[in-house]
Amino acid sequence: MNQPDQTPTDATEKGVFNSPWEKAFDKILTPFEEFIHRQTTSGMLLIGAAVLALILANGPLAEAYEHIIETLVSINFGSWKLELTLHHWINDGLMAFFFFVVGLELKRELLVGELAQLRHAALPIAAAIGGMVVPALFYFAVNPSGDAAIGWGIPMATDIAFAIGVLALLASRVPKALITFLVALAIVDDIGAVTVIAIFYTDSIALVPLAAAGALFALLMAFNLSGIRKTLPYFIIAVFLWYALKQSGVHATLAGILGALSIPATPKYDPERFRQHVKELMRRFKTNHLPGKSIMTNDKLRAVVQTLKNGVQGVEAPLQRLEHVWHMPVAYLVIPVFALANAGIPLDIASMGETLSHPVTVGVSLGLVLGKFIGITGISWLMLKLDLAVLPKDTRFTQIAGVSLLAGIGFTMSIFVAELGFSGNAELLLMAKTGILAASLLAGISGFIWLYLVSKPVQVVAAAED
Which of 322, 339, 451, 457 keeps 20 to 30 A from 432, CA to CA? Predict the structure, then answer.
């Protein structure tokens, strides 16, 4: 039977076999555009996971939910045993991958991103510092002593996925440089949060495991300096580093940051050599191509394609490749699973007034909403007034103020710090999480409304300038 002719459409093109959802993958995205796209989707997944956790914690499955996340899971090799609850495996184990991606993003930003040029980096760095210090002071003013005082680090953090997810909804109204500013600010914010965790949220230090961790990190850096670009050796040593930090008392997730900092940022081939390599491979591809024949029956063609794949990997720095590979599982799996395990707080309507007025809840909420707004906006104004920094391209100061509200979405990192600070105090942990959720919701809504009101559609702005 004759096949009817098919006219190429958006879904079907000659020589291309697409499922309907695959068309989007043909777009050529810059690393930054890919980063924004994934953070936006991750933000939506986070919302879904947080809502599901709240439903599970306050419905008929509340007991089963609690039982599952507190189930003991162990790894055994002979007499050696590592046993943690599922909750701790998620917070200490899975989140190490989150910090690994944060570390990769940090290193890239310092080498070639917004933080690489001091003139451009000055504003987001200063704004991030203000957005960490002022919220901590707000919290400490409400909780100056007692068991609650340790929570001062909770409102310092910004959830990059949530914040960028909200800002991306306004992509047609805000300049791209404003999104870049928020990314840079959030990454500096993450550096501060990691430093605070390492210094202030470590109960006790075991010197022998800590020394072992230092030796393992030195070995990773030796791999880097010796030109090792295969990622498997780094992964193996990083696993041992994670265990050494776990035994030392320093939070094990810091192994993710240290591992990321050791990953090489230099590719095997420079672009010119890669171009010549590809040119020769495409000549061989054309020579060995047999029209109408499947590539599965053409060994020479398959060899060319495989060599081309190896060349593509060689022109990418290992850091760049790993950031691309790990960003999706972290954004789409690790962070939502973390939210599912940690956002499930029991809500008692009858005592909600008492909960919302608790000093910890108030301190966290004020820190994230007012503290972030005052700290980021105030320091940004001062830096601009003193001519120590410049506004991002096509950005107005009122938009910086709107971003400072979005930075009050603390969620992932704030909950992480709360789990560390109040690990032995369920009541204060509940109050902290309530404050985080309430403040993040308020900051997200108010930031969105603010930016919508002060920003015009990008097309309109461009037309006005013409």
Answer: 451
